[in-house]
């Protein structure tokens, strides 16, 4: 027998070799070699050794057999655990777990890795698959698991405590999910854990102190949750810890001294909490630390003088937004690797260290909003030293007490510099001509200093400049014409200087300009025509100059304008009627000029106006009654003109403190507080004339009653169409919303509050004030086209009001705390979410099961049709939504549909301002795949028309004889079949339209949404089991109703535009389908 064969395994497991046979074999072999009588003693020794060897080999065989049998059992356990995890997943949009079935061995399933020896699951990586649902407690049975990654999914509910059984776990990442509740304390059982990432969830309560027992932990990330209480002192026991992130929580109390024991720590982030007290000195002694962020807490005390010596490896130091005081330690220049240095918004005093230039790796320095400065005027040496920092990109020294002549050396700062902010200090002297060398500057800020001299022509070389702010200085001379080269300019503010001369016509090149502020100077001449009509303009301020001539008629092209102030000039002529196009206008100030004529009747279209000041001009005529009908007007000043006639007594005219008409001597009437004479009453005629008047009045009254009766009958038969409505309470309450208010409202734009995310923007749920819920759409301005999308939404929403259109509360266009551009729209929050969440609920939404009945779906479809009819046929300019889909249709408390997201909206205006003819014109628009008709040809456009270049990439939608492209039809089919147009079943020429077309009329009940089918069947059954014992709902009538609805969907989504149903006809056609049901 071959001795090696004894230990060989067959495919069925270990060979059944018995221990006695093995003993017999080995005994005979050994005894044969020890026959001699003289070796008895050795034989006894050999016999003892043999017994030990037999016992050892028997145990090996036993363990080998048991391991093989238990391996089979454990493999089965792992498979059952994985299937249990899959069973609780409610949403798998990419069918990522389709391989998790019996056709494949589970070690080959997606995301699963098994060990080679035992074939047990050692790694489970399901990151970034958009899976949603609770996590099964069976995960605790994957006892060999070492790596577990569910990051960037939508798992929710509590983290099951059974996860604490995974004692072999080394890597656990649950980042960016929606887990909630408290952390299980038994996570401390992960004795081998090295990486723990729970960032971006909804965990609450205190951070378990038991986590301090994870002695092998290297990285801990608890960012962006809702943890409360203090930082556990037990974290000081994590001796291997290299990185700890606890930011964006609600932690309070002091930073525990014990953290100073973390000698291996490289990174510590405790930003955006409510921590208080002094930073422990021990923390400043962790020499390995290279990144420390304590931003936006309530920490206090001085910075240690030795900090730069004990933290020599620092690369990033963020201490902004606290209450640190005292001097900036000069030892910080010993941190030669420092890249980011932020001490802003504290109470630091004294001079800025003049050897900052030693920080040669420095890229960003922000010492803003500290009372820094040296009263002797030798503050600015540090600016010269910073010229040694060749990587410098951001320099912020604003709201300090720095004083002295602005050194020419600032022009020698790094050519990588793109933001330079020196506002609110005591700088004197001229702006250096050499400033034009800083070719990458995007933002240049000198406001509130004492600078003199002229604006250098060389600033015109800064081709990337977007923001120039030099208000409240003593700058004189002309505005250089070279400024017209700054084609990227967004904000130019030169208010409160001594500028003179005319406004350069070259500024008309500012095609992206948002805010132009030139008030309180000595400028003369006319306002350049095209400058006043830049479409992107939000604010135009030219008050208190010596400007002459008329107000440019091209002002009407500035359709996004919110504020216009040209008060206290010498402007003359009539107020241009084109101002009616500025329907976003909120503040109009024409006070103190020589305008004449009447108040243009076009002012009635300024539905957003809040402040209107026409005082001290030469205006005449009667005060228009429509001023009393402007819904948001809160302040009106008509004083010092030549108005006559009766003062209205409605609207803004009911509050004496909200308007002024003083200095108009020919006025009468109005509210009593004005103490104006009564208006003269016309004499009543007697005799025959009186009888004629009475008869005429009676006839008119009779005719009015007839017309009113006819209208009532028509309104009963015709669906209601909502027209413009007055401002909502939220609009009135939040007339201005700042960036900081939005930060607070959304929890710092927390991922927990995200309710929608798209290419150009992210939508957050927020709370303004104490309890006003809103939806805040923040635009991703780094995404190409996002700024245009912001403008498109404002253009689309600025002059439309309809009960079935999402109402915009306000907009916010500013810069954030880091000085980056920020744009957001604030909408009323829709409590029932989007139609998408009802038709295709995600895992989290499936927990609260909800379904739309047949009537509810018809009502929603009617609401959407009414909104589109309003946009296409009732607005003065046709508005195309261009991205109609379930996620852009929101539902309020009553399930009334409101169409939103106008980011791709187009307003049909020709180049010359005339509306396109809907009879023959077509226009191509980008939209969502599946909802717009591909392959539509363009007509009436030259070959150079820019949209032609996008034909190969984007689907197209058109208007033809008032017939809207097929997105509404596709939406209607999706609402009643429950199938997305992008469903994997649709390939080639087979699509949702052809799917429905093939099924009608015989198989209508087979293709409708299963949830709708269940609802109908339950309704039928309920009626059958009712008191009458029979159904009062006719299933055949239901089929006929559904068939009619789907036919409408097919007609609206027909390939040929000429065959499509006119959108104005859709509401009445849908109304007819409800009559089918009511007659059943």
TrEMBL record:
* Keywords noted in UniProt: ATP-binding, Cell membrane, Glycoprotein, Kinase, Leucine-rich repeat, Membrane, Nucleotide-binding, Phosphoprotein, Receptor, Repeat, Serine/threonine-protein kinase, Signal, Transferase, Transmembrane, Transmembrane helix
Domain Protein kinase as annotated: residue spans: 749-1074
Alphabetized PROSITE patterns for the sequence:
PROTEIN_KINASE_ATP, PROTEIN_KINASE_DOM, PROTEIN_KINASE_ST
Query: Where, per UniProt, does this protein localize?
Result: Cell membrane
What is this entry's stated membrane topology?
Single-pass type I membrane protein
Matching entries from SMART domains are given as: LRR_TYP, S_TKc
Could you tell me the superkingdom of the organism this chain comes from?
A: Eukaryota
The Enzyme Commission number assigned here is 2.7.11.1
Q: Which amino acids does the record list as binding ATP?
A: 777
A Pfam family (short name) is Pkinase
The reply to whether Isomerase figures as a keyword in the UniProt entry is no
Q: Which reaction does it catalyse?
A: L-threonyl-[protein] + ATP = O-phospho-L-threonyl-[protein] + ADP + H(+); L-seryl-[protein] + ATP = O-phospho-L-seryl-[protein] + ADP + H(+)
Give the protein name, as stated in the record. non-specific serine/threonine protein kinase
Organism of origin: Salix viminalis (Common osier)
